[in-house]
Design brief:
It contains three helices and six strands. By secondary structure, it is α+β, with helices and mostly antiparallel strands. The chain has a single domain, classed as Roll (Nuclear Transport Factor 2, Chain: A). Strands 2-1-6-5-4-3 form a six-stranded mixed sheet.
């Protein structure tokens, strides 16, 4: 079990330091690059090219999908599980790689025959990380926080069908070669009860 980390906040920074990109919206060139990164990622997942998808993830990846519960309006702050509480996914790159190897082993019955999926990504917003907001992490202003909405359609066999909708909040980091990788991903589903028989897809 890896150590808990502070959840990623998608709220924009109020930093107004002259000439400082920390917390500020990324320019159109970076925004376009991030959108293309997400579209390429969606294609890899929908084509079942999971080994290639793993290359888009940083070695110290934190991949987290908390559960949520129905709460009264005044208790909405408690509707999403905190770190250390119940989660649909609480993964590292190593554990995701194990899941991928299991697909190829023939022992993952929920994915043999495999699902057919379609990832639709929209509402992409990108800003530079403000390191002051993440003092417990070694982030720099060159890292990016990107939020996006997703709709994931899944179909398997003749009658298994599922639709997932939600939001992702990522920290994106550049490799020495200049490519983007996902270092942190927090996934929040709009559903609090999953009607599917299992959860064996990636978001």
């Amino acid at each position: 079990m890896h150590s808990p980390r502070t959840p990623i906040s998608p709220a924009p920074s109020t930093s107004d330091r002259p000439g400082d990109e920390a917390g500020r919206r990324a320019d159109h060139t970076i925004h376009f690059e991030v959108e293309q990164f997400y579209y390429d990622e969606a294609d890899l997942l929908d084509d079942g090219r999971y080994v290639d998808w793993l290359e888009m993830l940083a070695d110290d990846l934190d991949y987290w999908m908390p559960t949520r519960t129905n709460r009264l309006r005044r208790q909405q702050a408690l509707s999403v599980a905190s770190r250390g509480e119940a989660a649909f996914y609480d993964e590292t790159k190593g554990s995701l790689a194990w899941r991928v190897r299991r697909f190829d082993s023939g022992m993952a019955w929920a994915e043999d025959p495999p699902s057919r999926t379609r990832h639709l990504i929209t509402n992409v917003r990108v800003r530079h990380v403000d390191p002051a907001e993440h003092a417990d992490e070694l982030f720099t202003v060159d890292d990016l926080i990107a939020t996006s909405n997703f709709l994931l359609y899944r179909n398997r066999l003749e009658r298994e069908e599922g639709v997932y909708a939600g939001r992702r909040t990522d920290v994106l980091r550049r490799t020495p070669a200049g490519d983007l990788q996902v270092a942190r991903r927090a996934i929040l589903l709009d559903q609090n009860v999953l009607l599917a028989k299992n959860l064996s897809t990636f978001f």
